[in-house]
Amino acid sequence: MVWMHRKEGSLTYSGIGGLAALIALEGCATVGPDYAAPELSLPAAWHAGAQSGLPPGSADESALAAWWDAFGDPVLSDLMSRAVKGNLDLKKAAASLREARARRAIERAGLFPAVDASGSATKSSGSEETGSGSERELYRAGFDAGWEIDLFGGVRRSVEAAGADLEASVESLRDVLVSLTAEVAMNYVDVRAYQARLTAVEETIRLQEETLRLTEAKYQSGLDDGLAVEQARYSLESSRAGLPALRASLEGAKYRLAVLLGLEPGALLEALKEDAPIPRVPSAVAAGVPADVLRRRPDVRKAERDLAAQTARVGVATADLYPKITLSGSIGFESLSSDRLLTSGSLFYSIGPSFSWAIFHAGSIRANIEAQSALQEAALVQYKSTVLNALEETENALTAYGKERSRRESLDAAVRAAREAARLARARYEAGLDDFGNLLDAERSLLSFQDQLAESEGAVVSSLVRLYKVLGGGWSPGKPVVEPDKNPEANR
Fold first, then answer.
1. Please, is 43 exposed, middle or buried when counting C-beta atoms within 10 Å of its C-beta (0-12, 13-18, 19+)?
2. What is the pLDDT of residue 52?
3. Residue segments in the chain with a per-residue pLDDT below the cut of 70
4. Is 145 helix (H, G, I), strand (E, B) or coil?
5. Any bridge partners for residue 136, and if so which?
6. Residue whose C-alpha is closest to residue 294's, from 72, 119, 40, 56
7. pLDDT at 286
8. Of 176, 172, 186, which Cα lies nearest the Cα of 256?
9. Secondary structure class of 331 (helix, strand, coil)
10. Distance of alpha carbon 171 from the chain centroid
């Protein structure tokens, strides 16, 4: 401790060495558990195994960072750039990141002394019944300082927790970015897939209109009865009935895409008015190994940082068991007249440590330690659960992508066969060698297979997008975290 003695108008100190020893101890003891990242037992390879378009090998980090470039679609690349600038969820995540950064600065401030300035000027008068009744003026100005010596590391643990929270916010922003890029791509693929399906239906309708004219001509010439005409007509109208639902789905995908960019729903109707082909997937995509995915996925990285933050909070709670020592002091001027306020005779100061120790709080401190330890255990379980979910999602995405590629190949062959069957059936019907039922069945099959093929081509691309998402694609470890424009009009 520091003892202060006043002697002949001056202040002298003894025990300065004791104070120095206290300050030297600051930073030597940090109570609570030290964090160590959990060790997990991971499979060496994916159970889904090598499939069509999924060769074994390490994932390309640079390709994953901007995976949409692999589709070679400039419209999609432009939409991605606009989404990063305008998406509202991304703006919200960026604001949370700035908040976490500011909170870490608040906690770090606890490591340093706090200094406050104050001043006052008062005029008072006593009662004539209880005193002299004379007026009195008092002028005061000075500085107050205080510093809690972090002997047991409570403040440092708070800073450690805030730092981990900040890193978790970074990963949250990255996670939003990963989800955003995937959602933009899948809705864009939906737009192109619906356009392809509409084109297939419209082509079938034109073919069925020709078939209807053919049956009507045969009926009028007496070469066929009215049954074929009515069958051709209801087949045509059935195909036409499918157009409104497809067009509504197309418009809905455009609306959703605009909102993802932070725009009003109809903003992209004109820009995406012209049909364009469904993006083509690359010939091969390397998914890497499970350990690579877990190192890259933002949700796994965030769960690990949440665990680190909660581990530090156990230390914050533990520090409350120990004494707290605060070094405080003040210096200033105090005078009964303003013209003598800044003279040497008006100077006053004080300095010294204060000591406090929570001796009895009915067990609340230890209960808080137990509560924080339970939260730490829950954070560990959440981390392990996030890891398992990441592995499951990746296995499912690998399987879905490989199987959908195989399905598309079969449907492509089916469309070619159905187109040839429809041509032969028409030729036989026109030549009078077959009845109309075979032509009707052939045209129905062709329409069905064309629609399934267009849907499958979109599903293949969407499956690959989901694979890129579960692999954690859409951000680069070597670049700063993307923070979108704060100006809401910047994306217009």
1. exposed
2. 67
3. 1-28, 49-52, 127-133, 478-492
4. strand
5. 124
6. 40
7. 78
8. 186
9. strand
10. 7
Total residues found in the chain within this entry:
492
Place of tokens 């960072």: 65
User: In this structure, are residues 278 and 458 in contact, taking their beta carbons and an 8 Å threshold?
Assistant: yes
Sequence-distant (6+) residues with CB within 8 A of 469 are 178, 179, 181, 182, 397
Q: Report the pLDDT value the prediction gives residue 7, as an integer from 0 to 100.
A: 35
Contact in structure between 393 and 324 (CB atoms under 8 Å): no
**Which of 115, 158, 148 lies closest to 356, judged by CA?**
148
Q: What CA–CA distances, in Å, run from 189 to 248, 278, 441, 460?
A: 16, 6, 31, 10
Among 217, 160, 201, residue whose Cα is nearest residue 32: 160
**Cβ-contact 438, 421 below 8 angstroms:** no
Tokens representing 28 are: 């030597």
Evaluate the CA torsion angle 91, 97, 103, 109 in order and state its sign: negative
DSSP state letter for 279: P
| Vertex 449: Cα angle to 445 and 455 (nearest 5) | 150
CB proximity list for 257: less than 8 A, separation 6 or greater: 79, 184, 187, 188, 191, 268, 272
Pairing mode of beta strands 114-125, 10-14: unpaired
Per-residue model confidence as pLDDT tens digits over 200-226: 999 889 988 998 998 898 888 887 778
Residue 50 · residue 56 · CB < 8 Å:
yes
Q: What is the pLDDT of residue 489?
A: 42
Residues 379 and 352: their CA atoms lie apart, in Å, by 42
The answer to whether 491 touches 180, Cβ cutoff 8 Å, is no
Provide the β-strand partners of residue 115. 145
Residue type, 362: A
| Helix segments in 7-73, DSSP class H | 16-25, 61-65
pLDDT at 353: 86
Give CA–CA dist 253/211, Å, rounded. 33
Helix or strand or coil: residue 142? Answer: strand
Q: What is the pTM of this model?
A: 0.83
Q: How far apart are CA 457 and CA 409, in angstroms?
A: 9
